[in-house]
Amino acid sequence: MPDWLKNGFVRLLDPVVGALVRRRVHPNLISTVGFLVSLAAAAIIFARHLVPGFFVFLLGGMMDILDGRVARETGLASKFGAFYDSTLDRVSEIVVYFSIYAYFRPLDSFWYVGYIVITAMVGSLMVSYSRARAEALGVECKVGMMQRPERVVLLGVGGLLIWPFRAFEVGWEYGPLLAALGVIAVLANYTALERIYEVYRVAQGVPLDQPVPEEKRHTPKEG
């Protein structure tokens, strides 16, 4: 996602962030509420209400932005908070993907969707895991285009676009969602491979008990 677009959206949340900071709302509480919202989204999708489910899913993704900003602006950012937030993000992704799989499972003509969903989920988890493991080894690893914000926006918008396809009888109403899943399946796994190569490039030959040289630790910033 281009920085100008991401930063523009983040600025729209400034009033909400300000209100949360003034009330000293703990960022871990925001993470927890965001996780519960994502679980609610999964439950709604599982109950075969796709459009409302993906609307709620995007709300949960928005809260994932809020917790980090509130943590920084209140000085409450902590290692546990980062770990807690990341763990809840992974669980929420798994549950949402499972709910999509469960929605399409009874539809015989969409037998292939399960494979796309599983591939997208594996790619999404590997993008996050590869970065976490790289940073544990002292390598900053943010390369690749399909990070969590991009995945949330793409999947959420793909789900919401089902409504106009239905309302205007465009045909193949699931097209936007399946296209979003397909793009995530391909690009998330490609991003994971990019990160594997980046760690290889940076850390190749560095003994496990020695730090990565400082000049090699930071990867170029993605646009």
Explained architecture:
By secondary structure, the protein is mainly alpha-helical. It has a single domain (3-217), classed as Up-down Bundle (Four Helix Bundle (Hemerythrin (Met), subunit A)). The protein contains ten helices and no strands. Helix 5 (79-104) packs antiparallel against helix 6 (113-136). The longest helix is centred in the last third of the chain and has 29 residues, at 175-203. The model has no long low-confidence stretch (mean pLDDT 90).
Question: What would the keywords be for this entry?
Answer:
single chain, 223 residues, mainly alpha, globular
Rounded to the nearest angstrom, the radius of gyration is 19 Å
- The number of distinct structural domains comes to 1
Mean pLDDT level: 90
Give the C-level CATH assignment.
Answer: Mainly Alpha
Unreliably modeled segments: none
Strand content: under 5%
Quick take:
This protein is an all-alpha fold and 223 residues long.
Strand and helix layout:
Blueprint: H1 3-12, H2 14-22, H3 27-46, H4 50-74, H5 79-104, H6 113-136, H7 148-160, H8 162-167, H9 175-203, H10 214-217
